[in-house]
TrEMBL record:
It holds the Pfam family N_methyl. It comes from the Bacteria. This is MSHA biogenesis protein MshA. Signal peptide: none annotated. It comes from Pseudidiomarina salinarum. InterPro entries: N_methyl_site, Pilin-like.
Length: 164
């Protein structure tokens, strides 16, 4: 009798199917696609904030409002020192974003030009108990926009990806 060497086609197909099932069930444990997507979204929002702030500043400079330490509306956007304020009428209006897609929290110090307001934007559903008056309720996975307090400075924009 002749000895057979190798595997039959059925055995090979069964092994491939079992490996496929293992790969499909194990891959999501090692790859965090949703976290990467949220981080990319935050980076995109930061870029949009940079662009919106520069665009609004250019419009404010044309109107001669770039040195104003009080709130001035430029093209429908509330500004201080020519840049959008960290308020709904400021950076949020400049971005023209769909606010339902974001959890947004602001501080309103009501003292333009000397005390910086802060706005934090987080993808909707990441942070719980969001209020619009206390930016500290958004503690992870956000973009932070801080007002300008002196003429000639650019707003501080930073990204925190912890918890994404």
């Amino acid at each position: 009798m002749k000895a057979h060497k190798g595997f039959t086609l059925i055995e090979l197909i069964i092994v491939i199917v079992v490996l496929g099932i293992l790969a499909v069930s194990a891959a999501p444990q090692f790859i965090n696609f949703s976290g990467d997507a949220r981080e990319a979204t935050l980076d995109g929002l930061k870029g949009a904030m940079n662009g919106a702030a520069r665009s609004v500043y250019a419009k404010a400079a044309i109107q001669g409002e770039e040195d104003s330490s009080s709130y001035v509306t430029v093209s429908g956007v509330e500004t201080v020192y020519g840049y959008p304020t960290a308020l709904a009428a400021g950076i949020t209006a400049a971005l023209q974003i769909e606010t339902a897609d974001w959890d947004i929290a602001y501080t309103d110090n009501s003292d333009p030009g000397s005390t910086a307001n802060t706005a934090r934007f987080s993808p909707a559903g990441i942070n719980d108990s969001i209020t619009t008056t206390d930016h500290t309720t958004i503690t992870e996975c956000y973009v932070e926009y801080i007002d300008v307090t002196t003429a000639g400075n650019f707003p501080a924009i930073s990204v925190v990806t912890t918890g994404c």
